[in-house]
Amino acid sequence: MNASALMQETLFLVPARGGSRRLPGKNGRPLGGVPLLGWTALALHAAGVPPAQAVLSTDDADLAAEGRRYGLQVPFLRPAGLATDRASSVDVALHALAWYEAARGAPPRHLVLLQPTSPFRSPETVQRALRLLAQGARAVLAVRPAGRSPRDLYRLEGRGRGAFLQPLGSGAEPLYTPSGALYAVGAELLRRHRTLAPRGAAPLLTDPVEAIDIDTELDWLLAEAVVAHGLHWRATERRRLRA
Q: b/e for 23-34, b at 16 or more Cβ within 10 A?
């Protein structure tokens, strides 16, 4: 199965609850004239994702209206138990899977979760993830290099006054951490293991701009700087069309 055909059997889930402790109302907050969740909706549209497969999971009626305005399906409002900061992304994903199967009579082949807090994830990144799934990957995880190279890290040896720092050395393997931009996993695998990042997931390396994950006011200021300087995929596309 090629990536285009796979889109028709994949649930693209955008989770966006109304509350946020660190940055209240962030999912509907305008960034460059577009609400934060709208950036993800635009990326899905530009990637060629069928509108019927792109679903917003929210508990908030205003966010639901914004999602519909940007082409996302909002077939349900998330129950209150999944609208707190204690609700996990896995629980939200499983709830969406249950809706999909009940509404369409069969589960999707895969679920791709795209957090609105990663507004600069590009359509090409979505397409790359689908190609990896089409090639047989059991899951795909967007990652970025860890903040420091292992050669610049130390472990603590000994105790008390005799303790000293031992460098990991130049032979240490590079380390990566999830960027938050995209999680893709087989639906049955998700149900069985209750994780969006199972062992053996294929890596999807995101660049520093795509890896920006908005969680604090400082993150927001960084995102505004990216928009102001045109360093994101939408600005690149506009420049290409004008050329």
A: beebbbeebbeb
In the numeric block, which tokens belong to residue 157? 């040896």
Q: Are 48 and 150 a contacting pair, CB within 8 Å?
A: no
157 assigned to some structural domain: no
* Angle, helix 36-46 to helix 61-69, in steps of 10 degrees: 30
The helix (run of H) or strand (run of E) holding residue 236 is helix 233-242
**pLDDT digit string (tens) for 54-105?**
999 999 999 999 999 999 999 999 998 998 888 899 999 999 999 999 999 9
Domain region containing 131: 3-146+175-242
| Strand partners for 184 | 112, 140
The residues that bridge with 143 in the sheet, in sequence order, are: 178, 205
Q: For 143-182, b where at least 16 C-beta lie within 10 A, e where not — what string? A: bbeeeeeeeeeeeeeeeeeeeeeeeeeeeeeeeeebbbbb
Q: What is the pLDDT of residues 137-163, one digit of tens each?
A: 999 999 998 877 777 788 888 888 878
